[in-house]
Design brief:
The chain crosses the membrane at residues 20-44, 50-67, 79-96, 124-140, 155-173. The protein is of the alpha+beta class. Helix content is 63%, strand content 10%. It starts with 6 loop residues before the first helix and ends in a 17-residue tail after the last strand. Bound molecules: guanosine-5'-triphosphate.
Amino acid sequence: MTRLPDPSQKTADESEEERVSRLLTGLSAMAILFLVGIGAKAWFVAHTTHAGALWFFAALVAINMLVFARNGNRQQQKVGMIAIVGLLFGYLIITGGESNTGPLWFYVFPPLLFYLTDLKTGTAVLLFCYLLAAVVFQFPELPLVTAEYTTDFKIRFFATLTFESIFCFVLEASRLKARNELMNLAQAHEHAARTDDLTGLSNRRDMQHRLGEEYSRYQRSGHHFSIALIDLDLFKRINDEYGHDAGDEVLRRFSELMQAVIRQTDIAARWGGEEFLILLPDTSLLQALTLAERLRSEVANTEFIFAGQRLPVTISAGICSIAKAGSVDELLKQADIHLYNAKEDGRDRIAPRVRTTTKGQASPRTSA
Ligand SMILES: Nc1nc2c(ncn2[C@@H]2O[C@H](COP(=O)(O)OP(=O)(O)OP(=O)(O)O)[C@@H](O)[C@H]2O)c(=O)[nH]1
């Protein structure tokens, strides 16, 4: 049986990416305001180099926003923002910012980093920043390093930052765990809502949805499709004579057999009780009849054994092609009429009967 790719995971991942992107856009706008504002303050107290540096970073953030607005590449937006913020914090630690308070901005980094990247990348980038801060703190005489911090500040800075980083890591790890558990739960529910418990096939609801989709495809592109409505013959008798468990086992075995016979692109569903429906995309009526006949013959020649007893299992089926019906409802109705005819004609057969056969080619065994 072919299943549609589960869309829920993809949709959830996409909406998370979208959320992250929106947040980044908001943060970028805020960062520009802050950088321009603090830069202006520095300018007025004659810290022109510092002001220039902050405005330069504001311009980088703005460019990152513009690039994203142009190409919509979320990954690029993320990497760009992390790089700019990383550089800015590097600058603030090296120069001390205003009155050596620059490193305080570093506390913004861990939550942002863990939110934007995965835990591994976040930890790696943070460790690199720690290393940079340690080098700056340890070697204030290095070129470009203009700030000097007290030992007390350095110890407290590292201690509080480590605490914050661990806290952010744990929070993000639990958020991801909860998110994954929710996703798995949603997927399990989604799967259960589309699947028949006993056979594992699509259920009627899922098949109705797929029929609708296939019909739209047919309307759009003219691709024909057919259906086979299959019913196990005298199934009540199997239940009555061999027990309900035997009946269940027959339904399961038949489902397996049907899946082995149909193509990858065909979709089999339990339509209800002992009725099954196969959706056959890109299949003419004649091809559908041939497949149904192969399945009928396979079932008739298969030994269904339960508790050491051989069960009498045969099927009847009604086939219809969309070429013979104007709607899905009409298609199902026609298939049902053919199934009824097959039963009336003695069961263990397929309807409608095919009259035209090529010379020398066997026609499907069908009802009148
Ligand atoms: N074991 C089992 N039986 C089921 C299940 N669903 C439906 N049935 C039984 O399937 C039987 C269907 O019987 P009928 O509708 O009378 O049809 P039939 O005996 O197959 O006769 P024809 O369709 O005329 O060949 C009923 O006895 C239902 O109880 C199921 O999940 N498990």
